[in-house]
## 1
Amino acid sequence: MDEGTPSRYRLDTGGSATLILPDGRTLSYAQYGLLTGPAIFYLHGLPGSRMEGALFDAPAITPRARIISIDRPGYGLSSPQPNRTILGHANDVDYLAKHLNLDSYAVLGISGGGPYALACAAALPADRLKAVSIICGLGPPDLGKKGMDWWHWIGFTIGFRYFPWACRWWFSRETFGRLDLTDQQRYDQFQQEWSRAKSTAHPKDVAALDDPDLIRWMVRNHREAYRQGFEAFALDGKLSTSDFGFRIQDIRPDLPIHLWYGKDDTSIPPIQGEEIAARLGPKARLRIEDETHGSLTWNCRVRALEDLLEAM
């Protein structure tokens, strides 16, 4: 886990920065890709951190995009905000855009970042926000869950909403949440677990998780996600399974929104994308790919960025 060892994914924090928001909170972000290219705000998963943007670093250079990846409150280096809302995070994105003097930009939300990408679509200025892309993104709690595995169904129906303490405890015992272990110990333990599980895993997941560089990045990303503990993660889950505070169908009709979902995704199944697209109407462009929850991002990153840049 030596960060000086060459890796296809950036493990360093050299692109990280912070700013102070009007309410005194710290907002942390990292920049990747081509810093003179069109700006795309990256909204991480559940859990996640600004380090997720590293997945788009090399691909971003090919489509010539500037990736600005943000830590939500309580993750990474961003201050906690116990009373935050999903819509409220759009205000943080707007303030950061003004801080960076951006006249136009797009938003890309992954998995648990989906609700926040929809909030940006609903709230950010029409003259600046040009397009939105959501990859395997979670939708409002009233959407269908057909095809979701038992663990995620429990979590997204009653777990996060009514038993956040149990979710905190469960994830603190998973390998990537074991903050009592070093990065090397977590890496080694995950490799042992994966060697036992891969025989029954989906072939697309095997192709991704057999990559040592990807595992190193996952360890690093989770270290940042849990840097301040598990409170932000539990609150994120509760917010994502409660009323979003806005209606998808009220998002402005002229905003291009690209939806990417995996046919074999059992974490956030394609029915979520189908129902989001139905509520968005003609503004939505839905793609159902032959991918799993994890492989969709690994295998469709470049295409998603190219489509987003074209829509801008």
## 2
Amino acid sequence: MPLFDVYPLYNVTPVSGKGAYVYDDNGTEYLDLYGGHAVISIGHAHPNYTKAITEQVNKLGFYSNAIQNPLQVELANKIEALSGCEGYNLFLCNSGAEANENALKLASFKTGKERVVAFKNGFHGRTSAAVAATDNKNIIAPINAQQKVTILELNDILGVKTELEKGDVCAVIIEFIQGVGGLDQATADFYEQVFALCKANNTMFIADEVQSGYGRSGKFFAFQYYNVTPDIISIAKGMGNGFPIGGVLIHPDIEAKYGMLGTTFGGNHLACAAGLSVLNTIEDEALIDNVNEVSEYFISEAKTIPQIKNIKGRGLMLGLEFDFEVGELRKKLIYEHHIFTGGASNKKLLRILPPLNISKAQIDVFFKALKAVLN
């Protein structure tokens, strides 16, 4: 049976990984500066991660959410301690799309409203409401288009005010650093005014931290650079270092009721073990400090390359913008220099999303290769 052909594939077959490197079926070593869409947070095959999963699967890999699972409580408490998001509740699921789907559903439950405000170049997932709130008509099927969503420009505070004052908006959903869209950010004033408008208009303020969360921005969450308190925070990619896990942090003002949310696999024992190993490693190895140190070094080196027209993003969620499309550049980095990087909907942007424990020496390898390709 052939695979459904929806992914354009590079001719590389990774079979193992260690730290910031993956190795293909020919034994070739690749420096991974993309982490499979920012998923690899603590490095491939980190010993804490492999140990936690191995020990857990040898005891119990899965049971449903109909029973007690102390690992879920432990994970929730650890997220609260490291993120500083005190008092929130946690709902566990399996992916970023599922996290955003549940976030939007909660907002509609809480407010009794049905319209969503989202932003140009935003990406929130491929499920029903999440994809409707995504600014990409090519992935919105007619069945998704039934959702009531208004897409506005970033920094259009008058547009946000106008839409919220119509009284039917249940949620504003926003990435504080856009991922797929190309690392764009709004101003601090915009985020803070949107938050105030949500409060004034009985609208839930959803921070989509699926890609920017878990230390990638240089803080635990990217929204923490601003004076806002989201009603709902969606998380996923870096949470499990490759094991499928997502979650929604829910402000205590939103009351839980039996049956309002549910999932078969979300919060299973293996996922929680993976999630705890990631948080413990972030804490024990001071990885957020490393993010900020390496980010500063990366940006300083990037500024010395004249072909780079713009440096976007924060922390280790970075983009290098050129005055040409980067498709061929990425191929040369992969096939000639054995380095993985990422693209974006902005075809002139090279995305850099390495493990949070990447070193300056490994960044030097990248810039040496980049200069060779550019020159």
